Amino acid sequence: MSTKPHWEHVYQTRATDAVGWYQPEARTSRALIQEIAPGTDAAMVDIGGGASVLVDELLAEGYRNLTVLDLSGAALEKARERIGERAAAVVWQEADVLEYAFQEAAFDVWHDRAVFHFLTDADQRAQYATQMQHALRPGGHVVIGTFALDGPEKCSGLPVQRHSPETLQDAFGPDFALVKSQREIHVTPGETEQLFNWCVFRKND
Ligand SMILES: C[S@@+](CC[C@H](N)C(=O)[O-])C[C@H]1O[C@@H](n2cnc3c(N)ncnc32)[C@H](O)[C@@H]1O
């Protein structure tokens, strides 16, 4: 069953800076993206980007080929309103990452913070990997942050599948090579600490 009603309700009823995943600055994402895609013409998609400020920061860095995809139209509307005029330079896609008809090899970078971990079913994870494989160009990169194995068991009240670099590698398969991984402690607006596992994978040529 789709979780779209859940997410629409969250974004319609809660302030964007009050949700557990809120971060005033997308520091880890931005640093990892800049390491692997320093050229500002890189085509990037933020999967389940929601109302994240990552897109604001990437626009400010000069990146000009940005797509934000999310199940929730309310989330995308909040981000668009916040960004104002510059939002017109971004492609906003209200869609389910598992269903969306991505163009083949469209992106250099596939970014996901706290979305893949909602896929608690192995079939969904396989579908996600197929979508990613299709949408990334050969040599493109995945930048992904999930709750770590010792992170929380729920996110936004929904159960999650926690991950390590090894479990992500298993899910993505041999077409993706692990480039680096790191841990991050995210402090929620309610001052709870959440352990994230961040990985960068490169799609083989
Ligand atoms: C925990 S929030 C993280 C939002 C954002 N990535 C951030 O770091 O601020 C999860 C986001 O994933 C979106 N989402 C959940 N399942 C999705 C799916 N199957 N396809 C697209 N977006 C999805 C939700 O609407 C929500 O915006």
What does this protein look like?
The chain has 205 residues and is of the alpha/beta class. The chain has one domain (4-203): Vaccinia Virus protein VP39 (Rossmann fold, 3-Layer(aba) Sandwich). Helix content is 30%, strand content 29%. The chain has six helices and nine strands; from the N terminus they run ααβαβαββαβββαββ. The protein has helices at 4-13, 27-36, 54-61, 73-83, 122-135, 165-172, and strands at residues 44-47, 66-70, 91-94, 107-113, 136-147, 154-155, 158-159, 176-187, 193-203. Strands 3-2-1-4-5-9-8 form a seven-stranded mixed β-sheet. Strand 6 and strand 7 form a beta hairpin. The protein binds S-adenosylmethionine (SAM). S-adenosylmethionine is lined by residues 3, 7, 21, 48-50, 52, 69-72, 75, 96-98, 113-115, 118, 155-156. S-adenosylmethionine binds at residues 3, 7, 21, 48-50, 52, 69-72, 75, 96-98, 113-115, 118, 155-156.
Level-1 CATH class name: Alpha Beta
Ions, cofactors and other ligands present here are:
S-adenosylmethionine
Instruction: Give me the CATH superfamily.
Output: Vaccinia Virus protein VP39
From the spread of the alpha carbons, the general shape counts as: globular
Distance between the termini: 35 Å
H/I helix tally:
6
The CATH architecture term is 3-Layer(aba) Sandwich
Unreliable stretches covering 5 or more consecutive residues: none
Order of helices and strands: HHEHEHEEHEEEHEE
Percentage beta strand? 25-35%
Main attributes of the structure:
205 residues, alpha/beta, Rossmann fold, seven-stranded mixed beta sheet, two-stranded antiparallel ribbon, 6 helices, 30% helix, 29% strand, globular, binds S-adenosylmethionine
